[in-house]
Amino acid sequence: QEKSCRLSAALLGEDSEISQDQLFELLKYAALGKGHNAAQPSWCHIYHQSHLAGVVVVVLHEMSQLHFYRYYLQFKHLRKVFRHRFTLTPSANFPVSLYGEGTNLKPQNIPQGLTSTSSECITKSSDLQCDPIIRRYGEKKQGLTSYTLTLEEQKENDYPIEGSPGCKGYISTECDQRRTDSSPLFGLDCEMCLTAKGNEVTRVSLVDAQGQCLLNELVKPESTVVNYRTRFSGITKKMLLPVKTTLSDIQTRLKKMLPHDAVLVGHSLNSDLQALEMIHPSVIDTSLLFARSEGRRFKLKFLAKAVLGKEIQCEQKLGHDPTEDARAALELAQFFIEQGPTKVAELNLEMLLTAEKLAEVPQNKAALQPQGCGFQEQLKEPPPLSKPCFLDCLQVTGQKPLLLGRQGLDSSGLCQSNLSTSNKQILQRALEDVPLSKFSIIQFSLGPEYMTSHLQAGLYEKVRSKLTDMLTIYAGPFEEDFCMKSVKKEFGKCGPIQSLTVVTETFQPYVCIQYKVLEAAQLAVESLNGAEVAGSCIKVQRPVTAAMLDCNVLIKELELDVENEGVIYVAGVKKSFTETDLQKEFSQLKDLETLFLPKDLQSGKHRNCCFLKFQKSQSAVDALEAINGWTIKGSELRSRKALAPGHLWRWIWQMNHSNGKQGKHIFYERMEQLSDSEQDLRKKVKNLDHHIKKLYRSLQNNTLCVVLFPGVNSTHGSQSGLGLMGIKDDEGRSAC
């Protein structure tokens, strides 16, 4: 029986923003799999990738997350079918970021000889004989055993060796040297702190050949730490305080994890094994594998970018991520083994490194360089360092991706087709051609008349205004001398409050409360309307505006949204509670899968609410009944079904904190333009949803489908994108 593919992604939290590189990571693995050095993406997991029938990417040109939630009711198919959604980092030119610069696609397929800009750096074959990689390994591809270090090489490079004077007390992994070309590879990396003893390991990561993390553990050093080296290690004093794991514990675990013929891969792996005080006979050191002349070595960060097209050890991160480094070293070794020395030498890494360094030199400093140097003249116009484009990666399999779209959608010339091509014609072509292709990119558009900066700004204002109204409630009337503190306390039980003000335009006082999450506002309307608060029987309602007339319909649809299935919102959680506290309190709830305690994105503190995700919808319903009325440490809990998917929280927060600097006359002018075309736009969006529904229904089972609202990143402003993804199952829905 054919295995069905599944997709899982832990995207419940506020930080579910996916970069272009992470999206590339998913598509590469889905299309290529392990057989072509592609690793499981770090942010989601595809089960049984080899059984995927194909990959279809639908790009909704110049549309953003804004469009999805403005026309939420019109996107009926999208919101009911795709279980996984994520915020997508916008780019100035999304097609170029996906396909790679310099790519020139024909309407139906990719021509032979497709290359990215980095391919211009390929060295002539006559020059390859001088390359250190060719001199060391020859030109022919070989198995992994040809790239493991010999005993002599290990001694020369300060690897711990059995019986060596400096390795007294070191623990052997007890693996033997009977390795073969099919022996399993494992990536290893450690982070060290400086102690009174010297370099001691404080974090260890081990990944398997698929890039899956098997071990990522903090380690308590034996001696007093002299320097945490936080800038590089990412380790702080606070992180190590609760740690009980010792070096001995790690040594024991590694011995159990590694099979007898395991080959460890790392970058300058000798340092890691010395810190671990362990001896292992079979190693591949990527700092030596990618050989340079005169004993120099490439840095891991550079190799990851130049060879794999991956950014690691980013400056904005605090310290290095050992799992990321271990995975990068592993993938570099796999690339070298799979492609062979000649292909690696053709990358001309020395030239790329020089080009990168020159690119970092400010122009005024570059002008001061001495003239007439032959080597500098050769590099007068160094080729840019760019990652191989996604379609280059597909080329190694012989696959010919299908690309359908309109001409003139972008300046890169990636979508060349008939100027008169409409969405309907693109759909018709897709229905005919997608079944014949393993990888397809279909690009739809609302049309340039709906993509002007004025209309985009007007759309933003409408969505922001409606969201604000949905987060706002009015409560009253109250007595003239009512206690504001009592009102704030009662309404605070429903969730985090953004602002609370007294309305003075009315005969009796009312209070306007704006919440930070949709669930809190809805819970207040449902639980406090008609209740007695601060000595008055009050009415609780949302603002009455034309845009809010369909609010109840929208709330109902949000409740039924497939992404909110099995998720409930719980208010009344004390800010002093930790996730561990709540896990303990809620442990008796059946089928609880995930607990998420959101933070305020400005202060970083926990909010007074949490979200619970259950494996079964009925378990979520049962939990709602059980939780309402619960008291935890004197705090009464209130709960309801979730409304806003996880990726929306950050967006709502940004909406709440937008400064709204645009002049009112411009705002009303844009509103007027938008109103004139609103009805037509709704119709177009509905048709677009119908096109995607028709295309989706035509796909084979086990097809990965990714729908992208790429977002907007221009001089007029930035709007986050949105991704929806799933693998089609027998029932026509996305398998989770």
UniProtKB/TrEMBL annotation:
PROSITE patterns: RRM. It comes from Chaetops frenatus (Rufous rock-jumper). The gene is Rexo5. Pfam families: RNase_T (PF00929), RRM_1 (PF00076). Residues 471-545, 566-644 form the RRM domain. InterPro entries: Nucleotide-bd_a/b_plait_sf, RBD_domain_sf, REX1-like_exo, REXO1/3/4-like, Ribonucl_H, RNaseH-like_sf, RNaseH_sf, RRM_dom. CDD domains: REX1_like, RRM1_NEFsp. One of its GO terms (cellular component) is nucleus. It comes from the Eukaryota. Keywords: Exonuclease, Hydrolase, Nuclease, RNA-binding. The keyword RNA-binding applies. GO terms for molecular function: exonuclease activity; RNA binding. This is REXO5 exonuclease.
